[in-house]
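Could you join me in thinking about how sequence relates to backbone shape in a protein? Label the sequence line and the structure token line clearly, so we can match residues to local backbone shapes. Once you have written the record down, we can walk along the chain together.
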Amino acid sequence: MDAAERELTLKWIETWRLAGPELERIRREEIETCDTSVAVRALDDAFESARLHSPTGGWSGLVEQQAVFAKRLR
């Protein structure tokens, strides 16, 4: 990395460091003011498409989930 690339990289780091708190504030505000029922309706078609194009293997995954939980408790 040459000096110009390093300077540009440092500028990007500083830009994101300054933008981070504001972006987090916006994210929290959007979450707090979101109408969940509207969001669910907006995502319904995408969910159905994923469900139809990615059928499950015929199991719920609960056995696998419980195995993961059991490992974490040990």
User: Anything to note?
Assistant: Helices lie at 3-33, 36-53, 62-73. The radius of gyration is 22 Å. Residues 3-73 form one domain. The mean pLDDT is 91.
